[in-house]
Amino acid sequence: MTDGLNEKRDALTGDVYQSILDGRTALGMELGSTRIKAVLVDEHQKPIASGSHDWENRYVDNIWTYTLEDIWEGVQDSFAKLAEDVKARYGVTLTTVGSIGISAMMHGYMAFDKAGEILVPFRTWRNTMTEEASEKLTELFQYHIPQRWSIAHLYQAILGKEAHVPEIDYLITLEGYVHWKLTGKKVLGIGDCAGMFPIDTDKKDFHERMIAQFDELTAGENLPWKLRDILPQVLTAGEEAGELTEEGAKLLDPTGALRPGIPLCPPEGDAGTGMVATNSVAKRTGNVSAGTSVFAMVVLEKELKKVHEELDLVTTPAGDLVAMVHCNNCTSDLNAWVDLFEEFSAAMGMKADRNQLFETLYNLALEGDPDCGGLLAYNYFSGEHITHFEEGRPMFVRLPDSRFNLANFMRVHLYTALGALRVGMDILFKEEGVKLDSLLGHGGLFKTKGVGQRIMAAAAGVPVTVMETAGEGGAWGAAILASYMRYRKDGGSASLDKYLADSVFADEEGVVMEPQEADERGFEVFMERYISGLPIERAAVECLPGRV
Q1: Strand partners, 440
Q2: How many Cα atoms occupy the beta-carbon half-sphere of 78 within 13 Å?
Q3: pLDDT tens per residue, range 283-317
Q4: Contact 81/463 with Cβ under 8 angstroms?
Q5: Overall pTM > 0.85
Q6: What is the span of the domain harbouring residue 528?
């Protein structure tokens, strides 16, 4: 029996070995907020090697940033670790791959001059110094422009008369910058282009009317450029986006082992690669990522009727319109309560396994009343723009006659983790009439089998699916986009959603959970209490000043 298993393992290793030698692989790399990850997949989109590098943003002169040295140190280290993994697993030096895809945090501001030198430190999506620009552009375009978008950063720099503005030759996001240095091509995937400036989804390009409006708005500044001149070329999934140059190969792999000439797909933002990694690019589908923060991406069938400051509009990597509901707070307060129970267990002389503690408390929540027994909580560690809070105060509230027990206590904290998200989803479903057939859930909230999934189904009112591969992340999504580009280059004609369904997720069943009627009714009652109680949260912010 053991010999048979060894033979099967050796055969699989041999197949992968040959795939690597033949260049039938794809490399995906994503530069996330705290980790840069590289994943190599075979021709079946199965991960076969990986490498990662931890990093942290810096707060310098009131700006959240990463230096260019930080970027390239991380990119090179994650690739080097992937190459080491390939060598250790398959005994081969990685000299080529079939295609490459780069992804990173969306939005932000990287401005370069004609010599290719960065003009000011990289301003990440996390910076919130663009409120004035955001409000003025939203009013001008009649299209919601969030503070983190590149155009908001650019206009704020213009309003602030920043000296570097006339020198701008190229404005780009993080993954577009990495791609540019690897290929020499000033291009960007449409999903992240939609996080720089509004997109015309019919033309699959930046919105011409709004481009003209911006140029007219800034005409009095006598700038030597027009907006279109400094933006990247918009590309959609499947298009070719250049090849790895000799200089790019040395940047990615300073050892010199990696050869130039490898084709790259359009670089995409983390939202786009997340949609790919969760098979959520078709219309009437969506995905929700629930961890420290929570956001839902819903692929729309048509434009929304009106502007909603609570909703961001971006696109899939194929260019279909997506509504994004993004909330700053999700599981942090929930985790803090679990920490407290762990501390109590230790004080009682009981060594609790942390995973078991989460599983026990989460499952106990399912035994609580559907409306949480009249309990109320807010998980606002920080502000929450959907409910119009600049700051937050975690809070638990109950009436004297509330059903105060552990099951309801845990249930209310699971409910409130999705409370702000539900406010945004109600705008989509109730005000805009958006139809959604399914949501795919991923992130820490779904780690305990069946619990977060059931609560999410109640909150959204649609079936929620959880798949094992959803945990592979955006680097895997970037690798899939790279494979899709090569598939189209070789004559394939399937759309991205069809390609994902037939070639990537065909054997992925996932676990589907339908919303339960009692849970839905209970969540509705909770939400009435949640909305009514917001003045309590407001009073806490005003009466309990934060620490200086």
Answers
A1: 287, 465
A2: 25
A3: 999 999 888 889 899 999 999 999 998 999 999 99
A4: no
A5: yes
A6: 280-466+516-548
